Amino acid sequence: MTWTLFWKICSFALYFANITLVIYVVWRLVMKKSDPIKTLTWIVVLILLPYIGLLLYLLIGQNYRKNAIFKNKRIVDVEVRKKLALNQLQHYSDLENLAPSVSPYKKLIRQNLLGNYSILTVIDKIDFYFSGREALDAMISDVETANEHIHLQSFIFMDDSIGTRIRNILIKKASEGVEVRVIYDSVGSIKVKRRFFREMRQAGIEVLEFSPVRVFRPTYKINYRNHRKILVVDGRVGYIGGINIADRYYDGGVYEEWRDTQIRVEGEAVFPMQSSFLLDRYFIINRHLTRRRKYYSDIDVENIYRHKSETDIYSQFLTSGPDSDWSSIKECYFSMITGASRRICINTPYFTPSESLMKAIRTASLGGVEVNLMMPARADSTLIHYCSMSYIKELLRVGVNVYLFKKGFIHSKSISVDGKICMVGSANMDNRSMLHDFEVMSVIYNPQCAAILEEQFDQDISRCEKLSLPKWEKRGYKEKLYEGLARLVSPML
After folding, report:
1. Fewest CB atoms less than 10 Å from the CB: which of 114, 153, 425, 457?
2. 243 phi, psi to nearest 5 deg
3. Known catalytic residue: 229?
4. Exposed, middle or buried, 310 (CB in 10 Å: 0-12/13-18/19+)?
5. Catalytic: which of 149, 227, 420, 436?
6. What is the pTM of this model?
7. pLDDT tens for residues 331-371?
8. Higher pLDDT, residue 491 or 405
């Protein structure tokens, strides 16, 4: 057999295998009866990109939520959270006995209790930070005061100046007898040298890598990342928000300024943050910590069900990811937007919303609600930038105020509604955060907190360009073409 004939046979076999698999995948996509736009997008990719399209689908296209690839994690999550949530619902007599300050939101509270098993807690003290430098300095200060344990989870933990500084502090605390645990995401921290984390382990720190990805060990879980940012110190102080551990978050990097939003809380609201961290830890190593009660020592679990006072700051801590049956954060966004009556302020670095969220925003704006959206003038990803820009014309046509942040990069993930409730955390308003990544958000039912976010939003407007429909329609043909092409793949992102 000649080499020419051999290669012809191999080429035909590969072509036949690709066609067969594509037909099978298309059949499965159709039979799933899921989002038609996303289904059609994948069918086009599979047909127009032989072999590559099939590989992309296998790596990032499948929705494993219903296939329960994270089944063990979900079962543990249910065991810990479901009992508390249902007990709280019973203690509040099906939410009929809530304090007057939160009673108007009992529908949303119930939705989060039953859909996410997110208990209603009280924040004793809360601080907002609107830059990475402020947030990281505060986090470092609290870490340095730790006496018992430090639980740090970050999507990105770089081995640069700020990362090395924090690592050295963690090593010092471990040498003092403090239990230190770190979780980082394999893809988010893929550029970090292994020696960086190895030195932490050698110092007695428990360092865990979420869903490891290796060049010669591909995994179908590569598309599902842990994007959460959590810090818990001694079970009494907790942080969540958009801040990763990298120099650009601290000094802006190539940007003039790095705007972000992070919150620091004290009180029983730390309980679900601690629980989320420990559940993620269990998922990675399949082992519980002994003496678990010590990690909740400052939290009276029984009093979580008590009747709160009128002046308390109420919150619910939402988690979402492929391990859950529902996209709880997306559903909370939807309910907050559709329930608005006066004003909505949204911060997000990436804006590729699902059709349901886009409809909610359109409906609110057309119904007379002042809807404001702020995002970067230039995202740190070219593809995501053009995807985000492709939605602007539709927003402007229905009266949404769109602001492009130009004095640096805005990485905040927050929403405030009617100056009464707000939400802050790690989830972007895009398909990846809503469907594929593990995320956390804190819903805060308090006018003072919502006012703080709105005040910062209004201050940031001076650093933005406010878009107008006539001017936007005059941009170049090349920009419009790039946006149109990027929009085609937005359901895949």
Report:
1. 114
2. -80, 120
3. yes
4. exposed
5. 227
6. 0.86
7. 999 999 999 999 999 999 999 998 899 999 999 999 999 99
8. 405
